[in-house]
From TrEMBL:
Function: Catalyzes the phosphorylation of D-fructose 6-phosphate to fructose 1,6-bisphosphate by ATP, the first committing step of glycolysis.
Chain positions recorded as Mg(2+) binding sites: 103
UniProt name for this protein: ATP-dependent 6-phosphofructokinase
GO cellular component, one term: 6-phosphofructokinase complex
Binding site for ADP: 21-25, 154, 185-187, 211, 213-215
Domain of life assignment: Bacteria
Enzyme class, UniProt record, top EC level: transferase
Species for this entry: Buchnera aphidicola
């Protein structure tokens, strides 16, 4: 391997820049040429590929987002489009690709390896929903942002004796919600991993009111229900002012926290080391603070994200 490419794909996550920097600097230290691809798989298809040098990644370690740009490009599912992407890399003699993204991006990488192109995938998503890793790049930064928002909501909810419902990102994974709820001292938690019943939730909230609670914060993962409707329902049933706050893309932005910068730098370097050792189809993870790698096909089929039921149990005892 002499020339490699790097791209970021799917939802952006703070720390992606630090990961790109890790890839670029490690590649150059090992006398490899390194190419950046704009806008994920879309840029690969559209031939937006350019050479990077060590200064291309100066002053990015502390920046949120991804300077390469990211995109969702569903036409990458079509074989012929992936063939064009591979042709674009091959005409520059690029023969390996490092993909930084979530599980959707992993599938794109797996498809490329099935077509004979070497790919290493790095977990970059705030959702922490990627298999084979305890943490993904961006998760801890998003968590800090969310908890700061919950703290602010607490000030105003408590002043007005209000019930606040906070919708948190995570897709089908409740990690962000659960951790943020514990750190933010939320009274009620609704997660995709646990059956949701709005009547049960109401019952719990009423119990809290009867105990003498003056205000309450409900942390809920996105896509479970319409939180504005839920707020109306709870307000009607409890006669307490209830407001829904959808944190939205605020959760994706901001300078990466120290943990994400270190994780991203280590994973970036590790991905290049794996290529140098001759690996062709791996995804990277961190398990008990150690970097690990799996065959991407095996990981997608066999590894599941563990639900932290013990965390939920603890959280419930704290309310
Ligand atoms: P996040 O978790 O932050 O949303 P993600 O990587 O899971 O990130 P997706 O939009 O699911 O985000 O996937 C990113 C991209 O990966 C897609 O836009 C598409 O280009 C590619 N991809 C996803 N699934 C496939 C597939 N089955 N075949 C080929 N490419 C795919």
């Amino acid at each position: 391997i002499k020339k490699i490419g790097v791209l970021t794909s799917g939802g952006d996550a703070p720390g992606m820049n630090a990961a790109i920097r890790g890839v670029v600097r490690t590649a150059l230290s090992n006398d490899l040429e390194i190419f950046g691809i704009n806008d994920g798989y879309l840029g690969l298809f559209k031939d937006k590929i350019f050479k990077l040098n060590r200064f291309s990644v100066s002053d990015v370690i502390n920046k949120g987002g991804t300077f390469l740009g990211s995109a969702r490009f569903s036409p990458f599912k079509i074989y012929n489009n992936r063939q064009i992407a591979i042709k674009n890399m091959k005409k520059r003699d690029i023969n390996a690709l490092i993909v930084i993204g979530g599980d959707g991006s992993y599938i794109g990488a797996q498809k490329l390896t099935e077509m004979g192109f070497a790919c290493i995938s790095i977990p970059g998503t705030i959702d922490n929903d990627v298999v084979g890793t305890d943490y993904s790049i961006g998760y801890f930064t998003a968590l800090e942002t969310i908890v700061k928002c919950i703290d602010k909501l607490r000030d105003t909810s408590s002043s007005h004796q209000r019930i606040s419902i906070v919708e948190i990102m995570g897709r089908q994974c409740g990690d962000l919600t659960l951790a943020a709820a514990i750190a933010g001292g939320c009274e009620f938690i609704v997660l995709p991993e646990v059956n949701y019943d709005k009547k049960e939730l109401l019952k719990e909230i009423k119990k809290g009111i009867n105990k003498g609670k003056k205000h309450a914060i409900v942390a809920i993962t996105e896509y479970i229900c319409n939180v504005t409707e839920l707020a109306k329902y709870i307000e009607k049933e409890t006669q307490r002012e209830t407001r829904a706050t959808i944190l939205g893309h605020i959760q994706r932005g901001g300078s990466p926290v120290v943990y994400d910068r270190i994780l991203a730098s280590r994973m970036g370097a590790y991905s290049v080391e794996l290529l140098l050792k001759g690996y062709k189809s791996r995804c990277i993870g961190i398990k008990n603070e150690k970097l690990v790698h799996y065959d991407i096909k095996f990981a997608l089929k066999n590894l599941k994200k563990n639900f932290k039921s013990d965390w939920l149990k603890t959280a419930k005892t704290l309310f």
